């Protein structure tokens, strides 16, 4: 099911640099990471953490991988293979195609330069979030596309808040067929999570 309005807000494919910030529960101070995100509808995500600790998340409708490279070249890396539906970020991106209007997933409350998405039951349980606040540098009435946003605040039900900001947004992007498939390197410890 597609709609020109949805496609305008969240394109079929994009890539962007990102910065993620959250408060560490153990150290009570802000932690930051940054890297590159690649997305293709439906349910394809490549999320590469560059700093401070390199890691790679890849997900498609069939599989999901979380790869941690070795700290020292020649040592063993690790990959965790899990159900693709466990990755909340890709679910969020997929439903953001609905745009900034009330829908079956969430209700929207717009303010001057922000909009809050409140998840409807039962989706609040599925997303493990109470709400998402979208921030923009322009008025929300003028926001037409996800690239108009400066950052997203994700409020999880466990009390954690994660802020995700995008920059150098490019869309549409043509990805190769195997771009969202992880090829396990030699000398990698493989762990499969049970469903």
Overview of this protein structure:
This protein is mainly beta and 195 residues long. It has a single domain, classed as Lipoprotein localisation LolA/LolB/LppX (outer membrane lipoprotein receptor (LolB), chain A, Clam). The chain has three helices and twelve strands. The chain has helices at 4-9, 88-95, 123-127; strands at 13-23, 30-40, 44-51, 55-59, 64-68, 77-82, 106-110, 114-119, 129-136, 149-156, 161-170, 188-192.
Top-tier CATH class: Mainly Beta
Please tell me how large the radius of gyration is: 17 Å
If strands are numbered along the chain, what order do they take across the biggest sheet? Answer: 7-8-9-10-11-1-2-3-4-5-6-12
Number of spatially distinct domains: 1
SSE pattern: HEEEEEEHEEHEEEE
Largest sheet: 12 strands, mixed
In short:
The chain is mostly beta strands. 10% of the residues lie in helices and 45% in strands.
Topology, pairings included?
Elements: H1 4-9, E1 13-23, E2 30-40, E3 44-51, E4 55-59, E5 64-68, E6 77-82, H2 88-95, E7 106-110, E8 114-119, H3 123-127, E9 129-136, E10 149-156, E11 161-170, E12 188-192
Parallel strand pairs: 6-12
Antiparallel strand pairs: 1-2, 1-11, 2-3, 3-4, 4-5, 5-6, 7-8, 8-9, 9-10, 10-11
